[in-house]
């Protein structure tokens, strides 16, 4: 008595199991090769759509991070300049205080020091 694969239940079951294993192996290979759980919309449309939105958000966050980095650098430069100007203003205050209590001959030197501090402030500001 001959038995064909169409009537052999054991062979039919084994064939279905092998097809399932082959499919799962293909899915796993796709995930490994692409690095993604869902490589395209045919695998799982809702997860794929969510992943695409998340990829877009990550790209946006990268741009925002770079922009913030540039802004932090600019603010750091502005802060340093502001501190330098404040130091020069303090020098001017000190020189003006000295001028009130000094002799006339020293006032010219103090005025030169104030002019120099103002020049440095202009240099920092520009």
3D architecture notes:
This protein has 126 residues and is mostly helical. The chain is 83% helix and 0% strand. It is rod-shaped, with a radius of gyration of 38 Å.
Question: Which key features would you list for this structure?
Answer:
126 residues; mainly alpha
Span from first to last CA? Answer: 102 Å
Strand proportion: under 5%
Low-confidence segments, given as residue ranges, are none
As a whole number of angstroms, the C-alpha radius of gyration is 38 Å
Number of strands: 0
Order of helices and strands: HHH
Q: Which descriptor suits the 3D outline?
A: rod-shaped
Mean pLDDT: 83
Brief synopsis:
The chain has 3 helices and no strands. It starts with 8 loop residues before the first helix and ends with a helix.
Describe the secondary structure blueprint for this structure.
Blueprint: H1 9-34, H2 45-101, H3 104-125
Helix pairs in contact: 2-3
